[in-house]
TrEMBL record:
It comes from Neophaeococcomyces mojaviensis. It comes from the Eukaryota. This is Uncharacterized protein.
């Protein structure tokens, strides 16, 4: 989206930024001119803009006459939002608001995280993706197609903003737990990047939502006349790999410092292994999820009173998220003093064919082999319940996409065999959650240590209010991205990912500990993201992959403040632009008043 750049001499140009006020040197004169990047074309029509500034911008008379305050503006927006009868109506309203007035959208998001996040992210983004081709109104990112092979670098040139700091890229092939949604998956990169901006203060114009149309296995979509993607079947893994080689190189060519987050790919292990050494990239579903769940498990293990070596964890789901989480917890157990071999033995992974064992008779996908059991005496356990009876777990994790898979019987068994059973139904959206918060509480008489992927409301049981945790990678990916960008890391190392999860428990307040919360409250997500970024930067420095070396000299306290100072804040952003514009407008008004007698201005 192009925006207007106004220089002091009043000449308006179009620029690709919606950035803030910057100071600009002209090579010729050596003079310093302030250059004001106006937030966005439509933000020129923000009703809080003062009259002198409207005159300066040429928007006087185009906005209702009396300037608003933000409080009134917010009240109006929230009233409009809340008047929508359906969640999808709210999603559409918020998308329009973001496109109409980006700073206002982020001001409202950051002021009302608890209300707005579920509407732009899980669970509502799931429904939006299912209906994307039906509700589509405007481009908010890039769509690349398989037809662009050989020409990707040229297509990327069409992105109108000069500077991109981070992209989230999907092919839509595994959107939340909803399956292959093809190009309709675009809601995910947009939603994730909205959280990068809202939670970690990465400037909105520095984000690029990217969806790659590599065909879809979703037959219903291919036959739907409204579907906006190609009608071809999914390309082969070899074709996908060659396409990605070209894409990665093209992204780096146009934006050499770009951070690339892979999101919601059906089998993301090969691309992570292939690109992680040469690009500042990570996979959120494997690594972000691993880190966030490790962060919650640290507290849960402590509260359970059971030593790490005595934990037995059953995972329903052995895909990117399941394996990513198990690997990360192995790393935590090793940090706690166990050998890797002993730590690995604490895990039993179950997929759609039952317990993952070495002698099951099928060819296991590479990523499952590490955790495959060899101590099953040739017995194959087909169902989760059989595995629960066999293992008597202290922890059950759901990353299976199977809503309701943690049945009453399974939850009650967890309650019987554990003082504090750890129950994490992590599949998204809510409809795919392996159980609800209420079910976990009721079936364990309130003793469950609980976190879910999508949000649940607090629940009152026998006179006491219980608070669910949200074990969602949104607690770490914004800070991983921010830390990587700010220290200009050349890659995202394992230690940086580990550090992001380790940062989380340091942010839990005494009050939150009292409530047995496993994650800090979402309302403090900006501070949490700054802490995550601090840990990520420190780990990058230890691994020697950072490029901004002067940050190494700063104390933790100073660095955390520096990080916060570098976060986009939609509130101060608008004010500083306003103030700067105000003073420019006064200057201009003064200049104009000198000539006004001869040549009265028409405002
Ligand atoms: N809470 C969070 O932050 C995150 C949650 N997730 C959720 O985790 C879920 C899985 O994601 P991925 O691992 O990336 O998907 P995936 O497709 O890689 O893996 C799914 C796994 O579930 C297994 N599965 C499918 N049907 C099953 C059945 N009936 N019984 C037992 N196992 C079954 C599959 O065999 C596979 O191992 C999704 O719902 C996703 O939304 C993913 C990433 C982050
Ligand atoms: C949260 C997330 O990344 C997922 O459900 O895929
Ligand atoms: Mg995901």
């Amino acid at each position: 989206m192009a925006s207007k750049t106004v220089t002091q001499n009043g000449i308006a140009q179009h620029s690709a930024n919606y950035g803030s006020v910057v100071t600009h040197h002209t090579a010729k004169s050596g003079h310093t001119h302030p250059v004001v990047h106006i937030p966005s074309p439509v933000a020129h029509y923000d009703t809080t803009i003062s009259k002198p500034v409207r005159k300066y911008l040429g928007t006087y008379g185009l906005i209702p006459p009396e300037p608003d305050t933000y409080e009134v503006q917010k009240k109006r927006c929230l009233a409009q939002l809340r008047s929508k009868q359906t969640n999808i109506g709210k999603f559409i309203y918020l998308s329009q608001l973001r496109n109409a007035n980006v700073h206002l959208f982020y001001r409202i998001l950051t002021d009302h995280f608890t209300e707005i996040t579920p509407l732009v992210y899980t669970p509502v983004v799931g429904e939006a993706c299912q209906r994307w081709s039906e509700i589509y109104m405007q481009p908010e990112g890039m769509y690349l197609s398989y037809m662009d092979k050989g020409n990707i670098a040229n297509v990327l040139k069409n992105w109108p903003r000069e500077h991109v700091e981070i992209t989230v890229v999907t092919d839509g092939s595994r959107i939340l737990g909803l399956g292959d949604l093809g190009v309709n998956g675009m809601g995910i990169p947009i939603g994730k990047l909205a959280l990068y901006t809202g939670c970690a203060g990465i400037r909105p114009e520095g984000t690029l939502p990217l969806t790659i149309d590599l065909g879809t296995s979703n037959k219903a979509f291919r036959e739907d006349p409204m579907y906006l993607g190609s009608r071809r079947d999914k390309v082969t893994p070899e074709e996908e790999a060659a396409y990605l080689d070209e894409l990665m190189a093209a992204l780096k060519e146009r934006w050499p410092d770009i951070v690339i987050q892979f999101e919601d790919w059906k089998n993301p292990f090969p691309s992570l292994a292939k690109y992680r050494q040469d690009y500042a990239m990570f996979n959120d579903d494997i690594q972000g999820t691993g880190a966030v769940i490790m962060g919650g498990i640290i507290g849960a293990v402590k509260q359970s009173g059971v030593d790490p070596k005595d934990h037995r964890a059953v995972f329903l789901g052995a895909g990117s998220a399941g394996v990513g989480v198990a690997q990360q917890i192995v790393e935590y157990f090793v940090h706690e003093g166990m050998t890797e071999e002993d730590a690995k033995k604490c895990f039993w992974l179950v997929d759609s064919k039952g317990l993952v064992t070495l002698d099951r008779g099928d060819k296991l996908a590479d990523h499952k082999v590490y955790f495959a059991r060899d101590d099953n005496d040739s017995q194959q356990y087909k169902t989760l319940e059989e595995v629960v009876d066999h293992v008597k777990p202290t922890i059950i994790m759901g990353l299976s996409t199977i809503g309701g898979a943690f049945t009453t019987e399974i939850l009650q068994k967890m309650g019987k065999t554990n003082k504090r059973p750890i129950i994490f139904p992590l599949s998204n959206p809510v409809s795919k959650s392996e159980c609800t918060f209420e079910e976990a509480i009721v079936n364990t008489e309130g003793r469950a240590l609980f976190a879910s992927g999508s949000p649940f409301y607090p629940y009152e049981y026998e006179g006491k209010t219980y608070h669910p945790g949200q074990g969602n990678n949104m607690y770490v990916f914004p800070g991983i991205g921010l830390g990587t960008i700010l220290c200009k890391a050349v890659k995202v190392t394992d230690a940086m990912i580990y550090a992001s999860g380790e940062a989380l428990p340091t942010m839990i307040t005494d009050e939150e500990k009292e409530l047995a919360l496993l994650y800090p409250q979402i309302t403090r997500i900006r501070d949490v993201s700054a802490r995550v970024a601090l840990y990520v930067i420190r780990a990058a420095q230890k691994d020697n992959v950072d490029r901004l070396h002067h940050l190494r000299e700063m104390s933790d306290e100073k660095l955390e403040t520096w990080i916060k100072d570098h976060m986009y804040d939609p509130h101060s952003e608008v004010e500083s632009t306003e103030n700067e514009l105000d003073s420019l407008a006064k200057d201009l008004a003064h200049t104009r008043s000198l000539s006004q007698e001869k040549n009265p201005l028409k405002l």
